[in-house]
Amino acid sequence: MISKLKPYRKAIVAALVAGLTALYAAMADDVITAGEWVMIVLALLGGGGVTYAVPNAPKLPTGEGG
Fold first, then answer.
1. What pTM was computed for the model?
2. How far, in Å, CA of 24 to CA of 47, rounded?
3. Fewest CB atoms less than 10 Å from the CB: which of 30, 38, 42, 60?
């Protein structure tokens, strides 16, 4: 099961970090409003979606580059 998630791991982590950051910001006043829930969901979708859509940089052969 976990091996099937391998191509999506980076996007899942990015979505969780973005969503949890938005949740932390929304909890500043100890109340989450409907607008803040929308912000949290959009952060989850945006963080994961953008990270998934952007391909990784190609790996350089050993001995080349910085």
1. 0.77
2. 15
3. 30
The DSSP-derived string for 28-59 is GGS---HHHHHHHHHHHHHHHHHHHHSPPPPP
Q: Locate tokens 């580059």: which residue?
A: 65
* Residue 12, burial from CB neighbour count under 10 angstroms (0-12, 13-18, 19+): middle
Closest CA to 47 of 26, 8, 16, 25: 16
Q: Any idea which residue has 């409003």 for tokens? A: 33
Residue type, 49: G
